[in-house]
Design a protein that fits this description.
The chain is built from 2 helices and 4 strands. By secondary structure, it is α+β, with helices and mostly antiparallel strands. Strands 1-2-3-4 form a 4-stranded antiparallel beta sheet. It has helices spanning about 5-10, 15-25, and strands at about 30-35, 45, 50-60, 65-79. The chain has one domain.
């Protein structure tokens, strides 16, 4: 097997999963949420426009415990 598959290449570098999720969220026109230790338990929200915010996050689930809505409250705009 000469050429490795896309999946094989992705699995070799799991550090890129954050970027893949971000890219897919933007393709769908959705914001991207990520949590970093330095944010003290808050989430970062990034919009496709590049704007970034620190937000508190609430995930609303249905009776089967499946997420149906994400509610965020902006705490602070990031530069």
């Amino acid at each position: 097997m000469g050429a490795s598959s896309v999946v094989d290449r992705l699995l070799k570098n799991m550090g890129n999963m954050h970027e893949l999720g971000r890219q897919r969220a933007f393709e769908l026109g959705n914001p991207f949420y990520a949590q970093f230790a330095e944010d003290g338990g808050l989430w970062r929200k990034e919009l496709p426009s590049g704007e970034k915010f620190l937000v508190s996050l609430e995930v609303i689930t249905d009776e089967n415990d499946m997420p149906v809505e994400v509610k965020d409250t902006i705490i602070k705009k990031l530069d």
